[in-house]
Input
Amino acid sequence: MPKRKAAIAVGGVAALGAAALLLPNANASQDQNNTAGAAGTAKTLKASDASDLSARLQKLLGDALAGSYYDSGKKQLVVNVVNGDNNIVQQAEKAGAVVRQVENSASELKAAAGTLKTKATIPGTAWAVDPRTDKVVVTADSSVTGAKWNRLQSTVQSLGSGMATLKKSAGTFKTFVSGGDAIFSQVQGGNVRCSLGFNVKASDGSPAFLTAGHCGVAAKDWSDSQNGQPIATVDQAKFPGNDFSLVKYNDATTQAPSEVNTGNGQTVQITQAQDATVGETVFRMGSTTGLHNGQVTGLDATVNFQSETDPNGVDTVNGLIQTNVCAEPGDSGGSLFTQDGGAVGLTSGGSGDCTSGGETFFQPVTAALQATGATLGDGGNGAGDQAGAGDQAGTADPSASAGDQAGAGDQAGAGDQAGGDQVGGSADPSASAGDQSGTGEGAGDQSGAGTGDQSGAGTGDQSGAGTGDQSGAGTGDGSSSQTDSH
Output
């Protein structure tokens, strides 16, 4: 196999609102005043520094700390404390945070989440701590009705109005597969389509990438084109419980630059993995919906997906990042990142779409790296050609189709990821409506996976005819031309 370059998160359908924020100076520091000054004066921080400060305060304050969040307007870290001791407050303020005294401790909020797990693990439910309200926010999708709704509602009420709140969400919680470059696997009955999240270096030094765990559970061998020869093999896959996979490139000389191509000739270099902070702005790249941004709304979220293998079962995933960034079928596994190059998450699942909005959940990258032993940043260069990224971004014509924006066209999913259809004008964003409502039909071809026509004439089937299994089981309809996209 010739030496190939694997790019991540090809974009040709970028949302203008999000793309406007990703300018060439995206890596410039947002920290305008990194000095605390007089006692009680909070530091002005960029989100990544706020995350670091929160971690330090957790060690410093211990049980007195009841969560924190980033005030993106003021660029300050707000920390919740349950102990009014002046020494505690002074320590946090001296470190540069804004201090807010709250009623619920971290242990009390954790106990409330434990009660929900015991009494209300119902398909279509999710919960996470919201430090801005100092409560556990419980969300139920449209499938939670009747006795299930009554059970959930009574459980939340038993926790008390000061501890938990309950809200309804449009659509249904489901896993989304695909997000950056489209990747494909042939399974019995058809194809599975997922998405490459971030290129990494495996613990043995070989080039690899991270994607969603339900992708790795669904299929072992992955290609960068529909019906193409496999270029990578699953090394580790975790789902449910967690939702990440480590997939190793079969060719040890594969160049796997650590960057996200956001379209229109722009890239964001991925230099580090970082923990999410509630309130920070994050970006998601997807082969179905392109580039979208929003805010982190909760951490350590629990999501109860309807099991794809057991009609009466639940696939529970813990420790997820909750956001208001939209996503649709075809976006799972893709990259969630910050403007200054921090890898934050891998698209897992959620509800809603990019017309009506909704919740989307992400597997933290830091947890995936720790579990797999892989490394990001310079460690993700594979054969070591970081400059090779220029081929991918530098040769792109900003006015060209999505396939061409990927660069040389030999990159992972470059041709098939958007199939040229979304840019060429033939894609119907409302196609496969059944999939967006959670029925699992035809998601695979929403982004025009087709044959990867980079001229914009893509031949992907957008009728949503496939009978896709959203956990990545990929039953298809018996036709090898169908793609199951999650």
Notes: Residues 1-21, 23-39, 379-483 have pLDDT under 50 and may be disordered. The CA atoms of residues 1 and 251 lie 7 Å apart. The first helix runs from residue 16 to 19.
